[in-house]
Amino acid sequence: MIDRVLREKDWTLSTLARRSELSVSTLHSWKSGDRATGNRGPNPEKLRQLANGAGLTVAEVFEAAGRHVPAAIDDEEERRFLHLFRALDTEDRRVVEATMQAMRERQKSTP
Q: For the packed helices 2-9 and 24-32, what is the interaxial angle rounded to 10 degrees?
């Protein structure tokens, strides 16, 4: 994907990095397929930055990265929740996820 963008737009990696507000080293890692991006792959927010900087849709970038393409958020309450969730650190996100999972299981078992 990154190679395609660089070729089609006749950009350098530095240009794409600047336009995406990402580091050259991050883009280089993604370009070379380095797995140092974590066990879940590239961070979704950084993928969004890449999409914006490259003039691509979020769906194109997420699909190329092998990630689930996020659905559009129509509900304002969901939008506020997601905004708050994204501001949390990894440990707090895990707590929220575990809590929500427990709540979901409880609802499944309640008649």
A: 110
56, 89 Cβ separation under 8 angstroms: no
> From residue 29, how far is each of 38, 51, 75, 83 by CA, in Å?
11, 16, 35, 27
pLDDT of res. 20: 95
Query: Quick one: tokens of 74?
Result: 């129509």
How far is Cα 85 from Cα 67, in angstroms, rounded to an integer? 19
> What b/e sequence results for 96-105 when a residue is b if at least 16 CB atoms lie within 10 Å of its CB, and e otherwise?
eeeeeeeeee
When the pLDDT of each residue in the chain is averaged and rounded to a whole number, the result is: 86
Nearest to 50 by CA among 77, 80, 23: 23
- Taking Cα atoms as reference points, which of 70, 42, 55 lies closest to residue 5? 55
Distance between CA atoms of residues 48 and 62, nearest Å: 8
Its pTM surpasses 0.70: no
pLDDT tens, position by position, 49-67: 999 999 998 888 988 888 8
